[in-house]
Amino acid sequence: MTLGNHTIVTQFLLLGLSTDPHIQALLFVLFLEIYLLTLMGNLMMLLVIRADSHLHMPMFFFLSHLSLLDLCLSSVTVPKILKDLLSETKTISLRGCLAQGFFVLITAGTECFLLSAMAYDRYAAICHPLLYGQMMKKQLCVQLVWGSWGLASLNAFINTLLAANLDFCENHTISHHSCEVPSLFPLSCSDVSINLIVLLCSSLMHGFGTLLPIVFSYAHIVSTILSISSTSGRSKTFSTCSSHLTAVSFFFGSGFLRYLMPTSGSPLELIFSVQYGVVTPMVNPLIYSLRNKEVKAAVRRTLGKYMRWSR
């Protein structure tokens, strides 16, 4: 298909993570293991939270949705990466590229809002323990989750729709292992200034709009923890939010930088993308299962029930 003197591109070539066949084989094994661990870890969290009545609380309600999001985010990109690592030609259609970019935006965006809601939950539990039941009613928790999905969907729809209206001419090589909306802009022969402005503004609004409530919540949490006289009391209180703080650091640190830094196909850009889209979904269930006493106890109870049923 042609436009003027240009050939309109309907298919892209992904450079992937490496062109060396031996390194690709090693990467295939590595990413397959990561993906299987991600599936098992997050499915385990969903099963344990649903099966154990002791975990039917707001914090674990949010955690179950975080596990679902991590499953979705990883499944949007990793199966395609695994396929490409075994293929000589790493191609993706324009529609497939836009679809992948859309689902990355919606799952990653929803996770930002959800982590912010989880920070508010920790603020309510630590700073206002007597009012926790009133502040974190089930109806509010459901509204926060649906609101997270709704706002992220709107952001993904706007940015993907603008990208779908671009024309892509001649250059069809994406210096990346997956299709994300920012990776398409250097390939377009259309004016992408509006796309860049909208993406930058939405990323800043999305990032700071979710990060500021987290900072606000933890400022009050730290203040409350410091006011506790005993060292053991401070340590015990901090342990209830350390898992969430670790998850926030992993996800926001890499995801925010990925969408704010210029698209260049640099190794740093690839590292940030792999960290928030591949590594973080695997690490989150480990963080919450290893550092949370309630989850560890629930896993033991669930495994105990399964062992008794299997006899």
UniProtKB/TrEMBL annotation:
Keyword terms of this UniProt record: Cell membrane, G-protein coupled receptor, Membrane, Olfaction, Receptor, Sensory transduction, Transducer, Transmembrane, Transmembrane helix
Signal peptide annotation: none
UniProt xrefs under CDD domains: 7tmA_OR8S1-like (cd15229)
This protein's record includes keyword Transport: no
Annotated Gene Ontology cellular component terms: plasma membrane
Membrane topology recorded in Swiss-Prot or TrEMBL: Multi-pass membrane protein
Keyword presence, Transmembrane: yes
Transmembrane feature ranges: 23-48, 60-78, 98-120, 140-158, 192-216, 237-258, 270-290
InterPro entries recorded: GPCR_Rhodpsn, GPCR_Rhodpsn_7TM, Olfact_rcpt
Pfam family, one: 7tm_4
Subcellular location: Cell membrane
Domain G-protein coupled receptors family 1 profile: 41-288
GO MF annotations in UniProt: G protein-coupled receptor activity; olfactory receptor activity
Family as reported in the entry's similarity comment: Belongs to the G-protein coupled receptor 1 family.
Function: Putative odorant or sperm cell receptor.
PANTHER family the UniProt entry points to: OLFACTORY RECEPTOR
Record-given protein name: Olfactory receptor
Gene: LOC104997870
